[in-house]
Amino acid sequence: MAYPKTVAGSYKEADESLQGRNFHSRKISNNTYLERRNGAGSIALHYHATDVVVYRPNGDMELYSGGWRTPTTKERINWALPQRWYLTQEKGVWWLVSRETGQQGFVQEHVFTDGITLHPDGTVTGAGTYNAKVDRAIKKRVKAYAQLCADAVPMDSPDGGDCWYCHLGTVDGKSLGDATGNVEHIDSHMEEGYVVPSLVFHALQAHYNANMAFWQAFKGDHSWGDCEFGRQAVKKAVYRYVLRRKGFAA
Length: 250
What we know:
The structure is a single chain. This protein is 36% helix and 20% strand. With 250 residues, the protein is of the alpha+beta class. The strands form 2 sheets. It has a 7-stranded antiparallel β-sheet with strand order 1-2-3-4-5-9-10, with helices on one face. Strands 6-7-8 form a 3-stranded antiparallel β-sheet. Helix 3 runs antiparallel to helix 9 and helix 7 crosses helix 9.
């Protein structure tokens, strides 16, 4: 699997790239910048609102998705990884894989999680754990919740009575839950069987943008008969939206 080598693969290379008039920041690609960070002297590969790669002066590289495990986020991280490493996806799970065998003759494979760290000696810390049975159970639970939301169409429009983590937002359009990394509120909604219009709104916004699904999901806005398109759109959007916040690529 080959990726364009457009970003430094180490702190030293990143530091050398940020010199002269580009000492503080250099544009790498669309919405993607290499930037110096104050304090510890770190350098970050910044994509949209997330530092997807953080280069530390000691040679460590920390990797983050910011909750957005999308193909483009994965691509940006791959651009920055040392040549022996690459990030891949299998059945909704991200894996950090080495192209080289280790001392025991096995290729290293690590479950990606935000904050996973590559060290200069080739070791990896902060990896997640993989349990196929648990993953299937989570997906089944999320699928049932997505169907519950779809069955509620047309639903009341989002308002201040919704869960604050779902309803309140930041200036860049993120929900409070996304901005703070809080996913426990989503777990409570699934456990209680509580359909939150604001969560549905953010899910549709993330996966359909200005699509007509908006006009079929909420009371007073729909005009397409039985709203079947809206139900299917809500089911798909909520499923993908919640899975991503549970650590899956969807």
